[in-house]
Amino acid sequence: MKAILLANGSAPKKSLINKLKLIGYNKLICADGGANTAYKLNLIPDFIIGDLDSISDAVLNFYNEKIKIQKIKRQNDTDVEKALKYLIGKKFERVILLGGTGNRLDHTFCNLGIVLKYFDKIDVDLIHENSLLTAFNGKIKFEAEIGETISVYGFDNKTKFVSDGLKYPLKNISLKFGERESTSNEVAKKTVSINCKGGKAFLIIDVKTSFKYDFI
Fold it and tell me: How many domains does the chain divide into?
């Protein structure tokens, strides 16, 4: 099962949500203040979850008798984590996180970390405007447009990367964040493969390409 998780950051376009629904992301879950965005987009989510300190009173009252709303007071995890734990418990396998970035850099950084934190429990991809971020390990292979920009980020020196199909090949090198990154690499072949050995990594690709080649 697949779901859209709407957080309280930069609002996505409604057309993106509709497009995701067409390819099987049938459930819309709001993490607390993400419900404010859903309301502005004239969407009825399937579920709202969080400590409810960010959702406006008007929005809460609007949705209160229409859908299930669960208040969780605990503060040892974020509202996005509360929602992810709910989805994991319901056996969802893949989630697209929208609104995970915005004007709070700490929230953005935290949500990027959540993608890694729950990597072994649920597949979380994050979309921000024209970019899709996913975490991976092992070998990943995908179709892309020649000349397209992609970026790869590792997190320690033990993790090594080998690539095929990139303009600037990765030849068994580490890409430790803050020391060396593969930012704005370029697709040189229609099929790209990247082998991440010994750890996890972030891959950032174009959203339109991810839809075109069924990556998402």
Answer: 2
